[in-house]
Amino acid sequence: MAPIPFTSNHAAMTASATHSPLSHLDWLEAEAIHILREVAGQCANPVLLFSGGKDSICLLRLAEKAFRPGRFPFPLLHIDTGHNYREVIAFRDQRAAELGERLIVRSVEDSIKRGTVVLKHPEESRNRHQSVTLLEAIEEFGFDCCIGGARRDEEKARAKERIMSFRDEFGQWDPKNQRPELWNLYNARVHKGENIRAFPISNWTEMDVWQYIAREGLALPSIYFAHTRPVVIRQGAIVPVNVPLVSGELTNLPKAGEEIVEKRVRFRTVGDISCTAPVESEADTVEKIVLETATTTITERGATRLDDQTSDASMEQRKKEGYF
């Protein structure tokens, strides 16, 4: 029997052996699993950032495929603003418990109490301040790599990232000082105090994520599906109001003169309540969301992340300061 030609790609070897073509999801999955194993092999103390959002949910499934039946070679970490949707927080805790993996939670609220985060006013979004709490957590636990679910199609600054994105001893990112990744060779080596941000699904799109969720039958927080909630229209965006926090306190109170209406909406991305807006939708199943994603002309963050539109610092500037 003729030998199978050498290839460094496991997916290609599998396809050659079985004579069945791999789908684009198979290729993306194989690449992501390879990156996760590279992190485990090269890094002494990595951590996986898990918020309960759809991208990090995909990361958990990929980690299962990369390392089961063993335990993950890293804990899970969530930087909680204190103003997250309680459906997402409940899902986060449930999923970590189902997997039996260690979940570390560090809160922006604690950084505020320490004085390392100072809000300009009580209603200011805490989203950008997560970078401070993240850097504090990295120092506390000595993490040398944070695995994140960022994708290059989210925002133009994301497209400047490498798969293994180097951060200096101050946790800062310099897009002009990154390592080349020729032939898919990844270098995660760092000196003490330096850090790598690894992005296994960097080459995925929003559509890829939803198709993977559909294929794998992954559970999601309920707010990803169409539901009715009170909102106001503010600067052209749909803004949820009177949203209950985990504590039961209401946040995102309407401003004077704003008319509260009931709309059928879903969230394309989830984050701090103060800056995450939904879109009008009737998509109440993953299959409907896939179809809606295929036909939309609005980018994922284009009308759903208010901090991208109103913040005094661009995403690139926030990333240079240590943001995800």
Description:
This protein has 324 residues and is of the alpha/beta class. It has 2 domains: 24-208 and 314-320, Rossmann fold; 220-310, no CATH class. It is 33% helix and 15% strand. It contains 10 helices and 12 strands. The strands form 3 sheets. It has a 6-stranded mixed β-sheet with strand order 3-2-1-4-6-5, sandwiched between helices. Strands 8-7-11-12 form a 4-stranded antiparallel β-sheet, with no helix packed on it. Helix 7 (206-216) runs antiparallel to helix 8. The longest helix has 19 residues, at 24-42. Mean pLDDT is 86; it is low at 1-8.
What structural keywords apply?
single chain, 324 residues, alpha/beta, Rossmann fold, 2 domains, 6-stranded mixed sheet, 4-stranded antiparallel sheet, 10 helices, 12 strands, 15% strand
Summarize the structure in short.
The chain has 324 residues and is α/β, with parallel strands linked by helices.
